[in-house]
Write a structure and sequence with these properties.
This protein is of the alpha+beta class and about 290 residues long. It has 10 helices and 9 strands. The longest helix has 19 residues.
Length: about 290
Amino acid sequence: MAVNPLQRIHTAFTEAGATGWLHAVNIDTGAEINAVADHLVVTASVHKLCLLLTLHQHAEQGLLDLTEQIECPPAGRTPGPTGLAAMLDPVRISLRDAAYLMTAVSDNAAAELLLERVGLDAVNTTTRNLGLTRTRAQHTFAQTLATIREDAGPDGAQSLTDPRVIARMRALDPARTNHSTPRDMTRLLAAIWRDEACTPEHGAAIRRILGLQVWPHRMASGFPFDDVHVAGKTGTLPTLRNEVGAIEYPDGGRYAIAVFTRAANPAATLPAVDAVIGTTARIAVDALRTR
């Protein structure tokens, strides 16, 4: 007897040492896989997708030019291990190239520059107008990192393996930080892929950038095929590993997937939890492709 895909998804999360929440939907038919898809989750850098869409909507409305140049001096940059955040010298860059860095390598400094340009309220207007009633940005990315530093206390990063510190972190509590649900995120992705969130020109630009993400160890690991295209955005905070994305098959099948996880182990490196995002996404897509 074939094992129910929801049972397989639950088992995969458990064996990886994580709690997981997943939603997958056929973009064209609406068929879905619901693994606690309405659970409120911390988005972390997944919320950069909402910012990316807001940026393109503003460009569509003539509120900004994506080729506009912005300055990023070294002093005061939002910290992070990639992109502008890791650079040492002054940078001048276009809005659209900053959006590429924000998305492809999850550059926090680039994201903060763009958020300063469009505003946090505009990001929430974007998600509200799409009917994403459980999605909200409460903090900028710099503010989120600041709460982590404050909650970690004087021991800094060394304290992030302490369960007591993890338990008090505002950045890990969806009620007190940027949040959404897996279902809201697949609804957002489906709207982008169906050109309902913005014009086809801007939709194509967003899909292109999402397809340039460099991280292969989460969702993409479940689809190791040259003819299957994976486009997505990751999000990571202590104990949290997420990814939302779209999977496109050569026969025209298109699937939006959102996977959010929380690990029991506070270690910074947990390959099994990264990999289970791809494993469960593949289980969900395979189930949808048989319907």
